[in-house]
Design brief:
It contains 2 helices and 17 strands. It has a 17-stranded mixed β-sheet that branches. By secondary structure, it is mostly beta strands. A hairpin with a 7-residue loop joins strand 9 and strand 10.
Length: about 300
């Protein structure tokens, strides 16, 4: 079978040391803490605005729905498609660690949900990806939960990450030989490449910070191999005015000596992602952004 993506596997980053954990029940209550997983050190978090998502902007009951002209390399060819990125505030309950239907429960806490969806055509069949990331509203740098799935004619793959006191538990089910189904433990004090379009919006851009932070590689793939964690160098600079339709900041994320991602965020709040380019051929260019209740029909 042809591999789905042209991802280089020369692991110049630090490889996570993995251990096997037993499965935990989905209804296990979450700990009564604002930091369920190991937090990043202050020398990193000082560069982010912890109150970024506390702005009343997000309290109108609507979702931010941004659509992008996108490109990604699959089967050795760049493929063009539309990419949708949804950001919205939700209320979780601790019992099920999911969006609540009962707003009178005593165990509620607010999260920011970030959904990333795309359908990518190829010569023979389409690829579908949906990734859902959840961050505690008061912690834009700390992932609380992630689920991601891929579907195409060769099979389906599902991965989930859940924050625990000692880090993250990852469960996975992949159609690839040598992967199959299982669980593994990941460290908690890191960012996730999938979450950078959200987390980087909370940077203190005007200070133009430069710092190093662990970043877990992209999970929106059809593979479920042990993830690589890079010691990434993050640099913020004013964007070239010719590169974006409005004033912007450019954030460069150097994963290692050969892998560089770049993100352009609008200078005005809420710092919408305007563009993105990555080392493996993924690109986004904003077409439009709207605020509406997409779930209502």
């Amino acid at each position: 079978m042809v591999h789905a993506f042209l991802f280089s596997r020369c692991f110049t980053g630090q490889v996570v040391c993995l251990g096997v954990l037993g499965l935990t029940a989905a209804c296990t209550p979450q700990p009564e803490t604002s930091q369920p997983a190991a937090a990043l050190p202050p020398q990193v978090t000082q560069h982010f605005d912890a109150g970024w998502a506390q702005n009343k902007w997000w309290d109108d009951g609507l979702a931010e729905v941004a659509t992008y002209a996108a490109e990604r390399t699959i089967y050795q060819k760049p493929r063009q498609f539309e990419y949708t990125l949804i950001t919205v505030k939700e209320d979780f309950n601790r019992e099920f660690n999911s969006k609540t239907d009962d707003y009178q429960r005593p165990d509620l806490f607010p999260v920011m949900k970030v959904n990333q969806f795309c359908r990518i055509p190829t010569d023979n069949y389409p690829y579908h990806f949906l990734t859902s990331l959840f961050f505690r509203r008061e912690q834009p740098t700390q992932l609380h939960k992630l689920t991601t799935s891929s579907q195409e004619w060769c099979g389906t793959t599902f991965k989930a990450l859940t924050a625990e006191a000692s880090g993250y538990q990852q469960t996975y089910n992949s159609y690839w030989d040598g992967q199959g189904a299982g669980t593994r433990h990941l460290p908690g004090a890191m960012l996730f490449e999938d979450g950078l379009p959200y987390t980087l919006r909370s940077l203190r851009f005007a200070r133009q910070p430069a710092f190093t932070v662990p970043v877990c590689e992209l999970q929106q793939t059809s593979k479920a191999a042990p993830p690589v964690v890079y010691q990434a160098k993050v640099t913020v600079t004013p964007a070239d005015p010719t590169e974006t339709p409005e004033a912007a900041w450019q954030v460069q994320v150097q994963l290692d000596s050969t892998k560089q991602n770049r993100y352009w965020f609008a200078r005005r709040y809420p710092h919408v992602l305007l563009r993105q380019t990555t080392w493996d051929g993924r690109s986004l260019t904003l077409r439009q952004v709207r605020r509406y209740a997409y779930w209502q029909h």
